[in-house]
Amino acid sequence: MDRRPSDAEILEAVEAYARRRGVADHPTGLGAGAPAWQVLLDFRIVRSVETRGERPMREPGSRDDIASRPTYTGIGSHRVPPPDDPELSRTWLLVRAGSLGEERCADCDGGTNKCGTCGGRGVRDCPRFVDCPVCEGGPDACWECEGTGRPRSRRPPHRRAGTSPADRAARVRCERCRVDDVACPKCRGRRQFDCPGCHKSGQVECTACSGTKRVTHQECQGTGRFTVWTEGWILQNPQRAKERRLGRLDLRRATGNTGHWHETVLRKTTDKLPDDLDDSDEALIAPHLTPRKDEVARRATLRRLPLAHVRVPADPHRDYFAFPSHTGIEVTSRPTTERVRHFAAIATASVALVALVVVLVLAVRG
């Protein structure tokens, strides 16, 4: 139904609904008052707000993509189109006319610098030998000569106190003092091995420069120059607001799903609100329609649904509600506020009584 139903149509629909619920004949006849009307509102507005600014830019290398950007002379007066849809976010990056140029990197030589890790040598010092990982190059390299090659005495081999037969069985002949069953099985008394990294040369390739003696200058990314310009930016971002007056909570599902909401869309600041709104509706919505600073586009959507409240004398404990739907007039009913309060009071009293009984029972048992 595209129009607001008349009072007579509302009463007729409510009467038919009440009869289906088993209410006596002519439920809205004698004593029934005129429907009380209210308008449910769902107002939403999204506006695209534009912000602008400038900033100095400096990026490594020659930037062809910067040179291809559009230019401007004054960021405040540069024109860009408003968005077709104010929900969208858009960004323009511009170059101020005459500001684009290149400058040499003052902190490097053609994009590289002498390697600081190796001091420009291409190699790093490395120990020629490494300790045995088993005896750690200590006295346990050999229980007799402690890795020196000089036995303690001509007496039988010295056995460390507290060593088990398994420990002694794991020892081998020392290659330095030539005594059996006293040396570390890994290094055989030598304490150290040739360094596997430098192969006993004492130098390894520098990992920072891979032996080239120079490293890439990170600030200019090895280009030796920078592109400089003044960048202007323009942003268009959505800002949203809403006002909703949807009536009773227990009616929102019914009105939202089946109600025929009349919709009005306002896209210009000069567009007017519909004439069927009352003063309180306009006072609620009008502040949101005031143009904002830097607003470039908007879409305000106003949805409204007339809702009639009818009291049926033959069914005094329920409120009847009617509203236009896509197929005619939809009617529903809910318990009156007084009825809800009555049952809530009974429930509260019942809970209090049960709690009192529990307390008394516990007191008697105690």
Short description:
The chain is of the alpha+beta class.
List keywords for this structure.
366 residues, two-stranded antiparallel sheet, nine-stranded mixed sheet, alpha+beta
Mean pLDDT comes to 87
Estimate the strand proportion: 25-35%
Question: Assembly type of the shown chains?
Answer: single chain
Helical content, roughly? 10-25%
User: What is the string of SSEs from the N terminus onward?
Assistant: HEHEEEEEEHEEEEHEHEEEH
Provide an overview of this structure.
This protein has 6 helices and 15 strands. The chain is flat, with a radius of gyration of 46 Å. The mean pLDDT is 87. The chain is α+β, with helices and mostly antiparallel strands and 366 residues long. Strands 1, 2, 3, 4, 11, 12, 13, 14 and 15 form a 9-stranded mixed β-sheet that branches. Strands 5-10 form a two-stranded antiparallel ribbon. Helix content is 18%, strand content 31%.
